[in-house]
């Protein structure tokens, strides 16, 4: 998962910019085929990152093959980062929208 520190939208061409952070994240994809092909996306566990304050940001998800997650026409996802009250080095990643119209696809990332 790559996310912007300044709240700006991003794509794979931005991952080396200084305002972009990277953190391993486990995501869950659930596609409802019988209900017009909606996909529900969530980040399963908090990410581990240094001390950080709550923020609104955008993120992209890339796999180990450097492919970017796309759901329908969406590849940049709005998120809220919320610091864990017990462990300040953990951030809860909450997607602004959890449901997206379309099927999930891992596509070659443009701009790397």
Q: Tell me the domain tally.
A: 1
Segments where pLDDT lies below 50 for 5+ residues? Answer: none
What fraction, in percent, of the residue positions are helical? under 10%
Strand content: over 45%
Q: Report mean pLDDT, rounded to a whole number.
A: 87
Order of helices and strands: EEEEEEEEEEE
Distance between the amino and carboxyl termini: 15 Å
Radius of gyration: 14 Å
Described by the principal axes of the CA atoms, the overall outline is globular
Instruction: State the total count of DSSP E strands.
Output: 11
Could you give the order of strands across the largest sheet? 2-1-6-8-9-5
Mind summarizing the main beta sheet?
6 strands, antiparallel
Number of helices: 0
Structural class: mainly beta
Structural commentary:
By secondary structure, the chain is mainly beta. It has one domain (2-108). The chain has no helices and eleven strands.
Task: Give a short overview.
This protein is mostly beta strands.
What attributes characterize this protein structure?
112 residues, 0% helix, globular, mainly beta, three-stranded antiparallel β-sheet
Question: Helices, strands, pairings?
Answer:
Blueprint: E1 2-4, E2 20-22, E3 27-32, E4 38-43, E5 47-48, E6 55-60, E7 67-71, E8 77-83, E9 90-95, E10 99-101, E11 104-108
Antiparallel strand pairs: 1-2, 1-6, 3-4, 4-10, 5-9, 6-8, 7-11, 8-9
